Design the sequence.
């Protein structure tokens, strides 16, 4: 019986009790860490006046600039630029046509001058007609070979160690963790499970439409160059509604693109939690906010205090930034 | 230690071993039940040549006619008719306007003559402008008070006991169970968790668009009369891709609206499983297939054998149909 009991203890999925001092080890004991732990303990503790049943413990995370870095430009944009370069021989017209021409000349600033719209046009042009299997293969190849221009590391190592610990900590306390990103849903799904422990059906993102058809008698899903959904700003609560179908209990972001996601989350009844990661560490990562071309954070900084949202000061609050350190 | 051990045994989520003869008790031992068990055991058993890791154990279920009944007409249509009657005083123009006029006269056959399009028009007209909270309240009220016209039971009791056991059995073997229905995603989510054990984020269905806005400073999501997605026929693999992001291992349906979902599922590599519920029991439920106005099943019957899909003969295979029996 004792051995059986031990096996049961080891195989049981009941959360293992960890001493509070040992939680979130890459977070400095600066107040932010304690605010997170205090919130989680009050909603997860049976008998607490703020107890929330497991089925309502939903936490949503932005990806770019919140779970992984987003400088010098969104990583998916680098993927799209690389793909334009690879496909250029089949598209001689791109040499004359913006924004493709700027990408091929290496002038990324001009290529991105058209903002989200230009990026979307490039994404659709480089993926339309691909089956989902072909798209997955192209992205997997890129993820395994491409390197970050500044650090030389694979992009999947440019993730934030404190946030990985936070994802694990929340799941250990009965939370379901979702990604709610402006990035492409199919792009994210190719690494979210291995890197973040977030399965494909818990990823929400932007998308183009897909079409079901038979090719040589075999069914395929083909990406078509038609916008399906942009999961950004006012789109984030809509994406949460369509995919998750419940208002989250906790929301984590880093830019004004996450403002409405935090607003929607924290407007719910009972205890709610909103947090913004502020990029303040020019030495270990990057420092940027109100004037940045990616991950612009301005209104969020202005209103966080009055709305009761926590702001992470990356430089002060994070002992470690990337897992490799 | 013994008490601690007992508590651990009770709280552990490791599946309890049940003798094979006791599995799926509402299924007759006719071959169909055994085909299900054989498949699940071969994919879930560590070391089996057909072993599939837990992360890929995805099972998708149609709802109308597969998990609950769909006669004399889809239950959500009855909800929409009831709502039209309730809202009629505010819409005097409906007395003259089809399909609303037929609903108000009680002529449901004419009301549905326009098929899916007419139903969708009614659904949008009766829900546009509602916030998601208002919609949820209206549907919850209806679910708790409305009764099935033939049996007099709440609609949530018109579910199939053998399918409830199947959902539990699959989850006990590490499967994630999803609903993939032509019905409205927001409608389904209001009972799927309590009735089927399927949480909101594991429900895929048809939808209208929603818009995020502030009303008196409070954020709301408002349903707008614009089609977002129809989750039927070729739409089902698309809905699966957008929401689940993985090809299922098992698919369960009952009509030609599920054909492509089964086709897409069983075209995957390795072991796959497709099953159609055939309504053959006019005494205990209803008998219908090729000529039915709801849940038409014709191509599926013709091609099931050559495609290796199992067909449930409700009359022969199910010992019990509804939980109340």
Sequence:
């Amino acid at each position: 019986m004792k051995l059986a009991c031990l096996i049961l203890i080891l195989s049981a999925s009941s959360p293992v009790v960890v001493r509070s001092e040992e939680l979130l080890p890459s977070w400095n004991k600066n107040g932010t860490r304690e605010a997170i732990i205090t919130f989680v303990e009050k909603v997860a503790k049976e008998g607490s006046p703020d107890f929330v049943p497991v089925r309502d413990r939903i936490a949503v995370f932005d990806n770019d600039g919140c779970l992984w870095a987003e400088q010098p430009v969104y990583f998916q944009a680098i993927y799209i630029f690389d793909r334009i370069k690879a496909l250029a021989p089949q598209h001689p017209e791109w040499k004359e046509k913006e924004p493709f021409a700027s990408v091929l000349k290496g002038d990324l600033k001009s290529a991105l001058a058209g903002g989200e719209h230009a990026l979307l046009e490039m994404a659709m042009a480089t993926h339309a007609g691909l089956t989902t299997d072909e798209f997955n293969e192209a992205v997997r190849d890129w993820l395994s070979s491409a390197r970050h221009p500044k650090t030389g590391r694979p992009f999947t190592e440019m993730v934030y160690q404190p946030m990985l610990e936070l994802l694990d900590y929340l799941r250990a306390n009965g939370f379901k963790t979702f990604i709610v990103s402006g990035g492409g849903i199919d792009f994210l799904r190719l690494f979210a499970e291995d890197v973040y422990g977030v399965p494909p059906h818990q990823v929400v993102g932007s998308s183009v439409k897909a079409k079901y058809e038979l090719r040589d008698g075999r069914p395929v899903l083909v990406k078509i160059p038609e916008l399906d959904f942009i999961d950004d700003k006012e789109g984030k609560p809509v994406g949460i509604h369509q995919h998750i179908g419940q208002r989250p209990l906790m929301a984590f972001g880093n830019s004004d693109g996450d403002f409405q996601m935090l607003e929607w989350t924290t407007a719910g009844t009972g205890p709610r939690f909103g947090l913004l990661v502020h990029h303040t560490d020019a030495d270990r990562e990057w420092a940027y906010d109100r004037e940045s071309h990616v991950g612009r954070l301005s209104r969020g900084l202005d209103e966080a205090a009055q709305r009761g949202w926590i702001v992470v000061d990356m430089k002060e609050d994070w002992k470690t930034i990337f897992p490799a350190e």
